[in-house]
Amino acid sequence: MPTVVVGAGPSGIETAIELRRRGVDAHVFDAGPLGHTISWWAPGTRWFSSNDRIAIAGVPLNTVDQAKASREEYLNYLRSVVDQFAVPVNTFHRLVSISPIGDQAHDADNRWRLGFRRTLGEASASDKRTTGQSTCEGLAEAEFFVDAHAVVLAVGGTDFPNRLGVPGEELPHVDGYLREIHRYHGRRVLIVGGRNSAVEAAIRLHRGGANVSLCYHREQLPSDGIKYWLRPEIEGLIRSGSIQSYFGARVAEITPSTVTLRAEDLDDAQSRTTIDSDDVLTLIGYRQDQSLFEQLGIVSDSSSGSPLFDAETMETEREGIYVAGTAVGGTQSSHYQVFLENCHDHPRKIADHLCGTRATLPEVSERETLEARDAGLRRRIAWQPES
């Protein structure tokens, strides 16, 4: 029976390729398109990590100008890698249930039954993979089932935008994602947040002709949470008044045309300010959809709710269920610790455990070259954890 990889992002694709190299019949399913999370980035967005850190399966990632890859370049790269290795990827198929089959101790070939339903190409950045339903409720929704010997959950950790919890947050002009920059031209845009996503959005929208304001709950931008190449520009735009800043403030209420801000730790009429706004972007981070982990009973009691797994094999407490990629980090706070670039060993660990053997070593000269390359990359990541 096949191994099913859930998640067609870079970690899921890299895991499937490694398994298929070892003779494992691995199939990939995703609720959205290939590289779903990356596909909802705003057009032209560039990775913060350098190209060698986000390349997968030993396939170099090169860009025309040697700059860090853009959203479009990386999606093109993922498509080419999938085509090169003929990885069977089933897009727009949402996993809604996962349950054990019979007596797993006596039926090792068929351990898990996965229920899927087609999303008809309608999956978007804010779609839920599941609605947190119980396994029985998920079974009622499933359109078809796949039996698998093993399952790899490479589902990432940024499924839903964090919420403000204020009146008006459900209005249609309030969004947790930056969209096509062109749509904001000439509009008054309030950005809520003060780290990389918010700062980059503020700069790009200002360049795109929007009237940008920035609301952040601290008295100044964080000293350690903004990329070095973004900080000088955002600080200059704020000092010049090109971007209006509201530090030490939180959103209290959103209406179709205004946003009311209140001073941090205060909530009286004197502490409130109302500004006009056509769009509100709540770029305050994202949280993981942990419903599949909850169904399986593998959610840790940490604040991140990360899954419980063996770091040497990537297998969870449920036999035949593995996790890979940034999914292992759960819902990460603003200080991310798990990135694609430090997850490249997950596919090998999973394949070693599933196959019961380690990968065949290449010839000595090739191995020495690869080891030198990998050692250099590990050193750079250690000294500069996020490029």
TrEMBL record:
Record GO terms (molecular function): ferredoxin-NADP+ reductase activity
Keyword Membrane (UniProt): no
Pfam families membership: Pyr_redox_3
The protein's Enzyme Commission number: 1.18.1.2
Broad EC category: oxidoreductase
Keywords associated with the record: Flavoprotein, Oxidoreductase
InterPro entries cross-referenced by the UniProt entry: FAD/NAD-bd_sf, Ferredoxin-NADP_redctase_2
SUPFAM superfamilies cross-referenced by the UniProt entry: FAD/NAD(P)-binding domain
Protein name (Swiss-Prot/TrEMBL): Ferredoxin--NADP reductase
